[in-house]
Amino acid sequence: REKSLYIYQTRSLRDSLSEAAIQLSGLDSSVEVMAVSDSARFLFGGSIGGQARLWDLSRTDPLGPPSSLVPSPYSQVRAIHLSDSGRLAVTLRGNSLEFWNIQKPEEPRLLYAQDIDLKQFGDCVVCQVVLSHDERWAVVQDQDKNRSLVIEIGSDATVRRKFPVASRTWRVTGEILFSPDSRFLFVSEENNTRAAYDLRAKAPKRTIVTDSGSYSTPIFSPDGKWIFLGLYVNEYRDPVGRDKVVGFVAPTEAIGDKAKRFPISGFATSIGNAIFSRDGRWLALSGHSSYPRRESDDRRVQVLNLIGNTWKKEAELEPIEY
Question: Residue 294, SS3?
Answer without folding.
Answer: helix
